Amino acid sequence: MNVSKLKIIYKEETLVDIVFDISSSLALIGQSGSGKSLTIKALLGMLPKEMHLELQHHFDYELIAGKTVSFVPQNPFTALSPLTKIKNQFFSDRQRVEELFDEVGLHYDLLERFVPELSGGQLQRVVIAIALESKPKLLLLDEPTTALDPQTKEIIIKLLHKLQEKEQFKMLFVTHDISSARDLCKDVAIIKEGKIIESGKMEHVMQSPQEEYTKILIEANFANRKFRE
Q1: Number of domains composing the chain
Q2: Rounded distance between C-alpha atoms, residue 157 and residue 115, angstroms
Q3: What CATH number corresponds to the domain at position 43?
Q4: Among 35, 51, 103, 214, whose Cα sits 20 to 30 Å from the Cα of 198?
Q5: What is the band of 57 on the pLDDT scale with cuts at 50, 70, 90?
């Protein structure tokens, strides 16, 4: 999946102007306001009307959100109805939903519960199951581990890795959490002020960053991790 042009313009100001390729799993890393979330919204067709999008891409499928493209948000509470039982948040039959629950490691009894009765980690797995319901070819993840504790975060990352190997979807992981991205993605692109300033294989960029901005992000990530530990 190659995006040869993704340009977002608002009132003659270019907010994002990038090129990238997702051969398998790509982490798009940058600080808040760098253009990460705008990129995801552009691919989902969810940009505000006042923003102009120029998008050129080469896919082996049509870019249709909800059919070939699925989305996992940062906060699962925003994606689920709190007044609806979990089982009724899916459109598939019970057998398919139970298969999805098996894939994400959830017990069937949770299907009879409501959103407030589940933990954050359980809800994130429910959202992942919903995202996989249509058997997407591209999975977009917007900071899906940010609100999770370290142990739950590790579980979700391992789950996503296992699911990608099984289902063979491509993945764009938008985050500022370098440690999670490093565990999940093969490639990385560093975005700053709407521009990709450095990209390549994850391990190469992490071990030998060329840009000062990248070095700062890596150092900040490990400093925060040591502080939490």
Answers
A1: 1
A2: 22
A3: 3.40.50.300
A4: 51
A5: confident
